[in-house]
Every structure is written in structure tokens, then in C-alpha cells.
Specification:
8% of the residues lie in helices and 39% in strands. It is mostly beta strands. The strands form nine sheets. Strands 24, 25, 26, 27, 29, 30, 31, 32, 36 and 37 form a ten-stranded antiparallel β-sheet that branches. Strands 17, 18, 19, 20, 21, 28, 33, 34 and 35 form a nine-stranded antiparallel β-sheet that branches. Strands 1, 4, 5, 7, 12, 13, 14 and 16 form an eight-stranded antiparallel β-sheet that branches. A hairpin with a 4-residue loop joins strand 36 and strand 37.
Length: 714
């Protein structure tokens, strides 16, 4: 190496060391955030212990460890009298890795006066419109709900500088803000200048306010609400990792900030993997239900004061499809086609102009919602979900002024091994009938609606197998009243009763309704240019009091709606209404569902040959024939059944509930022959107080008369 080159290397090394020394000398606040003892972390310049509150943990950071903020509760505070006076010129820097954008503005670090902040305006414009002429002092270095970096500074007026670019998610990112006295503000992301704003005034410190890191000093309404009156102020924090937070008593140049970024940039990725909503193990299993404690990600999980077994998962033989009853959806069941493709639905829902929506979605702590397994055998699973519809402000639906009882709902999901389930909804009310159904698709963080479904998102079919597919490419489609029949041929005209969601998955979810249903496309709250579909993130998973928040990015778990199936209500016993319809999943075409739909809507007539039993008919809410034993004679456990099937009323995976059958193994013959294997012929026993019932499910399809013989084995 030549002497000249050696001199150049030495000069550059000297400049680097000199620069680093100058940076260290100019530091006035420095949180390494790599150690926490007894709920405190040390700020190194002043050697002051600052309080760390809420849920937090240490993870691998830029140098050593770093602090992860949970998005709801984590905050670091310092009393005002211990906070140093910032100089006329200063620079703030930090390394961050965001898990999601905050619900509204959230600070990396702030010491500023409070003022009433209203989210009725778009969060990119409210600071200018409301705060620019306010008598605020101090500084607020933070992140907007869309992911923009901002420095808000109190001078003679409140100055807002916001970046033109968003902070990336789940990446180590160097953030910096420079305030030049009576000159202006500059913002930097990874050493690149992304925003600036001039000011001719000097900085004014908010000396009486505590310094806060990660959380605003007051409750704030989540941004971008659907209805302002049904979105309430709440506490939340930054969601992600903060490391190496520093404030200097100097203004750094673009070159200096770029050098800092390049010299400190970590080689490791932040400990923020994609947040995939849980559906238990990915391994294929056997048909049945199980209690689980489903894990999402550590910060969300730690918010829940639950023990083991709070959730329920139903799985099927050798299939990725699962039915998931999880706290994150308030126990509203999800039909998961696989890990990444989830279809959900609405609960009983009410609405008024005081409370907004009143539904299961607005019970984020599951105070009024729980789930339990009723039946779990080889032939079928029954899961019970009970809930009380609630609003964002905690009110309930149709409260009786005398008794104080509000609307309560019992839902029973009867699920068979063929990935077909019946949902029975029972509304207990002193009021009127409400709406129980809305076809909803869920997105995991990182997914947009277009990633989950095709733009030709919904296909309808009738009992003749005629179909029509609706396309969201140009605009939201409509199922107009005069189209309900015309899309399905000329004569005879017949309404659609089958809905299939055209997900980008092998299995497709579907629903089957009674013929009196009224299908409508969900055509409200759509924002052109954001997505082809209406898209919100106040549910699932979210812990905010809001009945609607429009998505700004695919940073959180979210949902979008496609249609209302419009199942007809039925008057139940006492003060109740009930509804019933089918859910399922198939890798086959929508036409393949027609035999199932016919067998449920127009079930084959059942004739009993045995005199010791009585038919109670086909129970549409269980998708099974109900038969009762009417004799107490022993040794008479033989039952012969004839199903009068044809092409209009086919046999399709029939099920039978035989009350009082007893215990023991059961043999089966079809038309006098034993023809079905164990997986195609399934039985289960239900123990009651005064009897034992038998459940039988058969994997058989036929369009002709079928004789079934069941006999108890001695």
C-alpha cells in the first residue's frame, strides 16, 4: 500500500473518530434501551432511571438489546423537573422497527402541551387545520397512523413537518429530525431527506410536561373512523421496537446522518415476524374439536388474562380446512381454508344513531362472549357460541326496561366430517328480529383484499345448477331485485341459494340458504383507489373502541365484506327468533354443492319399517333426521329406514339422531349389504341424564331409494 493511500486511510479514520466523539459530546439524552431493572431503564447522559410501564420485553437490537412496545400499553416516562432544556438547535435520532402503524399519532419521544385532538378530520390534515395557531409548546417526534414520520414543534405557533414517504414495516429503520433555530425542520429516513418545513421562530419548551416515549400523554380517538360518534378516545402506544434513542444539542447535516445510518445499520432482522392469525398446528389431523390456547404474537397474547384452553378448533380428516373459534374474532367462528385464507361472518347486529353498531365485534375483551364444545364424537361436532351484542360505548341492544335483560344470542354449529356445518342462530329478545349474517373475508397483516380473493369474488348458484359470478373490477356489482331470477335462465325462474367465495386457495368456502333468502351485494363504505372492496381493521384482533376504522395500509389484521345472504327469520319459542343455514368448504366447483343444497332444502322422505321407533322428521337446523325409540323392550336395537330419494331430493351424506338407542357398537347395511368402510360410516354416542342417543353419519350419495339397516351388536 502506498504512503499516499495510507495517509488517506488515516485521515478518514481520524474524521470518523472525531465525528463520533463530537456526536458523543453533543448528546444530551440517550436511551440505549438494552436493560430494564425493576420497571426502570437508565438514560445514560443524565444517569437517570426512567419508568417503563405496561407490557414490554427485550429483544435483539441494533447493538445489544432493544425494547419492544406492544401497541397498547407500553410507555416510558420522566418527570418534567428531570427533563433537560433543549437548546435552540437540536437533532433527534432513533432506530425503530414498526410492527404496525399506530391507531393515530404516536410519539417516539415527546414533551409537549396537551390539547383536544379530534379524529373527525383526516390525520394528515388535522394538525395544520387545528393546531397550527394553537398556543402549544414543546416537541413531538412521532409516527402518523398512515406511517409517516413527523416532528411537531412549539414556537410562536405549532409547526408540523411530516414526511412524504412512509416508514417501512418490520425493518430496521433509522429515523431523524433536525430543528434549526429560526430556519426550519428537516426529516430523514435511513439517511435520506424525506421532508422539510421552514419557520422563522425559536423553539419553546413545555417545561411543566412530563417526557414520554412510545405513548401520547392523553387518550386519542383512532383515526379514519367510519362513524365519529361510535369511535372513542383510548390509550394505545407505538407498536414495534425502539432502540438507540438520542437527542443532540446540534444540527446534523444530511451527510452526517447518512454516515450514522450506514455505520450503525444492523445485520440482523428485527424480531418482528409476520403476524399470522392462528389456526393451531399446520399438521393434518383427524376430524374432531379440541380446546386450545391459540397464540398470535407475544405482545398481543400478553394482553389476555386467560389460562389454558380459551379457544376451540375443529379439524377434518387429512384436510387443511379448520373452523376456528378464537378470542381474536370475539369467538365468531372462522372457516380457515388454509393458514392464509379465512372466511368469517357477522353476528346478530343492531344499529342506532347514538351507539352505532351493536354486535359481537365491539366486545374486544370477550366480556359477553364465550364458546364451548357440546358434542365431540366420530360422527359430528357441536360447538355453542353465546354472546351479547354490544356497542363501542358499552351499551347493548333492545334492553327491556322492566327486567333489564338485553338481547342475548345462542349459536349452535353442528359440523360433520364432510366439512359441512349448520349454523343455528337463536336471538332471545323482547324486541324485534335483527340481522344475523354478512359474508366477511379476513386478511392477515400484510394482505390486501385483492391478495385473498379474485376480483370475480362471488359466485351464486340455484338448485338447478345455474350460476352467475360477480366482478368487482370496475365497480361494486349489484344483485338488483329484477336480476334475482334473470341471471339464472328463463323458465322456470329460480332464485340463488348457494354462495361461493372465490378465494385464491385450493378450497373455497360456501354457504347454502333457504329459498326465501334475499342475496344482496355489500355496496357501502367503499373507498375508490384504496381497494376494490370495503376494508376495515377495527376487527378482528384490534383492542380499540370503534365500530369502524378504514384501513390505510395492510399493516394489521383486517376484514372486508362481500354480501348479505339474507336468511329468513323464524319465530321461536317464547321471546325468540331463529335462523339456520349451511357453511362448508370444497376444492370443487359451485355446481358440486347443488346435491347438498337439495338434500337439505328438499330432503328425501323418510319411512320407518321398525315399529319400535318414531320419526320426528328432518331437522334442518342439525342437517339430520331425528328418530326416537318409543319402546323400553330389550334386544330390539334394530332399525330399518327407507329414504325415498330421487334427483330432486337426493341422498347426500345423511345423518341420523336416534334418541334412546343405548350404548354399544352398531352394524350397518345398505340395501341389505355391508358396503361402507369405517371412515364412510361413522357413529357417536351422546350421554343424556335419562338415556343414551346415537348419531350416525354416512358418506353416501344417491338419487334413488335407499334402505338403511342399523343393528346393535351384542
Amino acid at each position: 500500500m502506498s504512503k499516499k493511500v495510507n495517509l488517506i486511510v488515516l485521515f478518514l479514520f481520524f474524521m470518523l473518530i472525531t465525528g463520533l466523539h463530537a456526536q458523543k459530546e453533543n448528546l444530551i439524552l440517550y436511551w440505549a434501551l438494552d436493560q430494564i431493572h425493576n420497571g426502570q431503564t437508565t438514560e445514560l447522559c443524565g444517569n437517570i432511571e426512567d419508568s417503563v410501564n405496561g407490557n414490554y420485553r427485550l429483544v435483539q437490537g441494533v447493538k445489544n438489546q432493544a425494547l419492544i412496545f406492544d401497541g397498547y400499553t407500553t410507555c416510558i416516562t420522566r418527570n418534567a423537573e428531570q427533563a433537560p432544556q433543549l437548546p435552540p438547535n437540536f437533532t433527534i435520532t432513533a432506530w425503530v422497527a414498526l410492527g404496525a402503524y399506530p391507531w393515530n399519532w404516536a410519539p417516539l419521544i415527546a414533551q409537549e402541551n396537551t390539547i383536544s385532538m379530534n379524529s373527525n378530520l383526516d390525520s394528515r390534515t388535522w394538525p395544520e387545520d387545528i393546531l397550527v395557531n394553537s398556543p402549544r409548546k414543546g416537541y413531538y417526534f412521532g409516527v402518523s397512523p398512515e406511517g409517516y414520520l413527523g416532528l411537531h414543534v412549539g414556537t410562536q405557533s405549532w409547526i408540523i413537518c411530516q414526511s412524504k414517504e412512509k416508514i417501512p414495516l418490520r425493518q430496521w429503520t433509522h429515523l431523524a429530525a433536525v430543528f434549526r433555530n429560526k430556519v426550519g425542520i428537516e426529516l430523514y429516513i435511513n439517511g435520506q431527506k424525506v421532508g422539510s418545513k421552514p419557520t422563522k421562530y425559536a423553539f419553546q419548551q413545555a417545561k411543566k410536561e412530563n417526557l414520554r416515549i412510545g405513548m401520547s400523554r392523553q387518550k386519542m380517538e383512532p383515526s379514519h373512523p367510519v362513524r365519529h360518534f361510535a369511535t372513542l378516545a383510548c390509550w394505545y402506544s407505538l407498536d414495534g421496537i425502539i432502540d438507540e434513542l438520542k437527542i443532540y444539542n446540534d444540527t446534523f447535516s444530511s451527510e452526517s446522518l447518512k454516515k450514522i445510518c450506514d455505520s450503525e445499520k444492523p445485520k440482523n432482522n428485527p424480531e418482528l415476524p409476520l403476524r399470522i392469525m392462528p389456526s393451531a398446528s399446520k399438521d393434518l389431523g383427524e376430524f374432531g374439536a379440541s380446546y386450545e390456547r391459540l397464540k398470535y404474537y407475544p405482545e398481543w397474547d400478553s394482553l389476555w388474562p386467560v389460562s389454558s384452553d380459551p379457544d376451540v378448533v375443529v379439524q377434518f380428516d387429512d384436510s387443511p380446512v379448520r373452523v376456528v373459534f378464537w378470542r381474536g374474532t370475539r369467538y365468531s367462528p372462522v372457516w380457515a381454508m388454509d393458514t392464509y385464507h379465512w372466511m368469517a361472518d357477522q353476528s346478530i347486529e343492531n344499529f342506532n344513531n347514538q351507539d352505532g353498531c351493536i354486535e359481537h365485534m365491539l366486545d374486544p375483551h370477550c366480556r359477553y362472549s364465550h364458546v364451548r364444545i357440546i358434542e365431540n364424537n366420530n360422527a359430528r361436532v357441536v360447538v355453542h357460541w353465546r354472546y351479547c351484542p354490544t356497542s363501542a360505548n358499552g351499551n347493548h341492544s333492545q334492553v327491556d326496561p322492566i327486567t333489564g335483560w338485553e338481547d342475548w344470542v345462542d349459536e349452535y354449529y353442528t359440523i360433520y366430517p364432510d366439512q359441512v356445518g349448520i349454523r343455528k342462530v337463536i336471538l332471545h329478545t323482547r324486541g324485534h328480529s335483527l340481522h344475523p349474517e354478512e359474508l366477511i373475508v379476513l386478511c392477515h397483516p400484510g394482505q390486501r383484499p385483492e391478495d385473498v380473493v379474485n376480483l370475480k369474488a362471488l359466485t351464486l348458484a340455484n338448485l338447478k345448477g345455474q350460476t352467475h359470478t360477480y366482478n368487482w373490477k370496475e365497480k361494486t356489482p349489484r344483485v338488483r331485485e329484477d336480476e334475482r331470477y334473470l341471471h339464472f335462465g328463463n323458465k322456470p325462474k329460480e332464485k340463488p341459494v348457494i354462495l361461493m367465495v372465490n378465494m385464491k386457495s385450493e378450497y373455497k368456502p360456501f354457504q347454502v340458504f333457504e329459498t326465501e333468502s334475499q342475496v344482496k351485494i355489500f355496496g357501502i363504505e367503499h373507498r375508490k383507489g384504496i381497494s376494490h372492496f370495503p376494508w376495515w381493521n377495527h376487527w378482528p384482533v384490534a383492542q380499540i373502541p370503534s365500530d369502524g376504522r378504514y384501513c390505510q395500509a395492510p399493516d394489521r389484521a383486517s376484514h372486508f365484506s362481500l354480501a348479505w345472504g339474507g336468511p329468513p327469520p323464524h319465530k321461536g319459542e317464547d321471546d325468540s327468533f331463529w335462523w339456520a343455514w349451511i357453511y362448508g368448504a370444497t376444492p370443487d366447483s359451485v355446481e358440486s354443492i347443488v346435491p347438498l343444497a337439495r338434500s337439505w332444502i328438499m330432503p328425501p322422505k323418510l319411512n320407518l319399517i321398525s315399529e319400535d321407533y318414531k320419526s320426528l322428521g328432518f331437522d334442518q337446523t342439525q342437517r339430520c333426521y331425528v328418530i326416537s325409540k318409543i319402546t323400553e323392550k330389550e334386544n330390539n336395537n334394530k332399525l330399518e329406514i327407507i329414504l325415498k330419494a330421487d334427483s330432486e331430493s337426493p341422498v347426500y351424506h345423511p345423518a341420523f339422531l336416534i334418541k334412546g338407542w343405548g350404548e354399544g357398537k352398531v352394524s350397518l347395511k345398505l340395501d341389505g349389504k355391508t358396503t361402507l368402510s369405517n371412515k364412510k360410516y361413522r357413529t357417536g354416542h351422546l350421554r343424556r341424564l335419562d338415556r343414551n342417543d346415537l348419531i350416525v353419519w354416512l358418506d353416501i350419495e344417491r338419487e334413488a331409494q335407499l334402505k338403511i339397516t342399523l343393528e346393535g351388536e351384542k
